[in-house]
Amino acid sequence: GRFVLLDADGAEVLPEVQSEALRSGEPQLVVRRGQLHGPRLVKLEVSEPAPSLADGCVLITGGTGTLGGLVARHLVRQHGVKQLLLCSRSGRAEALQRELEAAGASVRVVACDVSDREALRQVLASITTLSAVFHCAGVVDDGLFETLSPARMAAVSGPKLEAAQHLDELTRDHALQAFVLFSSLAGVLGSPGQ
User: Fold this and answer.
1) pLDDT grade, residue 95 (50/70/90)?
2) What is the helix, strand, coil percentage profile of the chain, to 5?
3) Average predicted confidence (pLDDT) for the chain
4) What is the pLDDT of residue 30?
5) Cα–Cα distance, 114 to 122 (Å, whole number)
6) Distance between CA 117 and CA 125 in Å, rounded?
7) Residues 152, 122, 97, 92: is their CA dihedral positive or negative?
8) In this structure, are residues 71 and 134 in contact, taking their beta carbons and an 8 Å threshold?
9) Which tens digit of pLDDT belongs to each residue from 52-85?
10) Distance, CA of 48 to CA of 155 (rounded, Å)
11) What does pTM read for this prediction?
12) CA distance 72 to 94
């Protein structure tokens, strides 16, 4: 309750808008064309059919973690994905691999720090047909505002931001059906220490 993050669109934020932001009780707001907006979740109505991810290999970074495992299960069960490459720093997920294979998927698990561009390039070179990328990798280093440091920010941003940039650059020549980046919902809705 000590900070209000106000994301402005480049135009001058009027004092009355600033006052309204402080009175709102919201920890984070955006100003667009002079109007305040708070983060809200809404159901998105999709009119286009979902792309087919079954034709080729789907890469999931952070694929052996909690989020990566949930995504992998969803892709196999709901979207019929038959080939998965789960990429993680540890490269170990025997139980998840057995579960996904029992559900009909061919699963390969590799150890790779996706913030290492060359290591990621080698992993991508091992895929014949890449149909989608789901970037779930990330490092958590919770702390209070006063404890933030450049080293802590670098440790968190490497696997998430640098890896996203590497994935973008290294997959541009592939005919991807999906390129999905996951980020913490706590960054939008707010959560102590995130």
Assistant:
1) very high
2) 35, 20, 45
3) 89
4) 92
5) 11
6) 12
7) negative
8) yes
9) 888 899 999 999 999 999 999 999 999 999 999 9
10) 38
11) 0.76
12) 14
